[in-house]
Design goal:
Keywords: Membrane, Transmembrane, Transmembrane helix
Shape: elongated
Number of helices: 3
Distance between the termini: 16 Å
Length: 219
């Protein structure tokens, strides 16, 4: 069992996730809070490190791991719901701030070896996510170049090839080439101006999570 905390000073806003992996986030009357600043009411802030804290209460270290992954703790995957909460919380916090992950556990569970194993598993998980995004971004850049080349080739060929009056088939082929050129051009603009930006934002989020400080607090 694990519980995810928020520290809202606004009574109408609550954020939590607990038992049996049910995640609940309620924003009743959220219009009363500025969209750009509501995160300030949800997460603790440390001025010294310009850092917001994402807090999680655990019953045991195992709560963070994927139950279906049989590999050793240091290499085990992180639980999907845990990752979703951490990632979504990180999205709430602007990228000009650092973040820290605070894990609360019972005193009797304290184990330095398990702490080190959890930190290693956490960093491996998010390092893999960062590397995967790098590969996806590289593939996107190749596709952008390919779309631009194909678009230019199709539109140029269609523009300079004008002898289609004597044949319906050639006319259809000509129109198909022109349409294909515009489709590749649209793909180029979509990938260059939209998809590339989305991947860059996602990369920065995962990179910040990878570099986040992990603290253990026992109670």
């Amino acid at each position: 069992m694990y519980v995810f905390f928020s520290h809202s000073s606004v009574p109408c806003i609550t954020t939590h996730w607990k038992a049996n992996n049910v995640y609940v986030r309620t924003f009743a009357g959220v219009k009363a809070v500025r969209k750009k600043r509501y995160f300030q009411n949800l997460y603790k802030f440390e001025k010294e490190g310009n850092k917001y804290l994402i807090e999680v209460a655990l019953d045991d270290y195992d709560d963070v791991y994927d139950d279906w992954d049989p590999t050793p703790f240091k290499k085990r995957d992180i639980e999907d719901e845990f990752n979703d909460y951490i990632f979504n919380s990180s999205e709430d916090i602007p990228l000009n701030y650092e973040i820290g992950i605070v894990l609360y556990l019972p005193d009797e569970k304290k184990d330095e070896k398990k702490e080190a194993a959890l930190i290693s598993a956490y960093q491996n998980f998010y390092n893999y996510a960062v590397l995967r995004l790098c590969k996806v971004t590289s593939a996107l850049h190749r596709r952008i170049v390919s779309n631009l080349v194909l678009s230019g080739s199709f539109l140029s060929f269609g523009y300079f090839w004008g002898g289609t009056a004597g044949s319906i088939l050639l006319g259809v082929m000509h129109e198909g080439i022109i349409i294909g050129g515009w489709v590749f051009l649209w793909e180029f603009f979509t990938n260059f101006f939209m998809r590339r930006r989305e991947l860059h934002e996602e990369y920065k989020l995962y990179d910040r999570l990878f570099k986040a400080e992990i603290r253990f607090v026992y109670h």
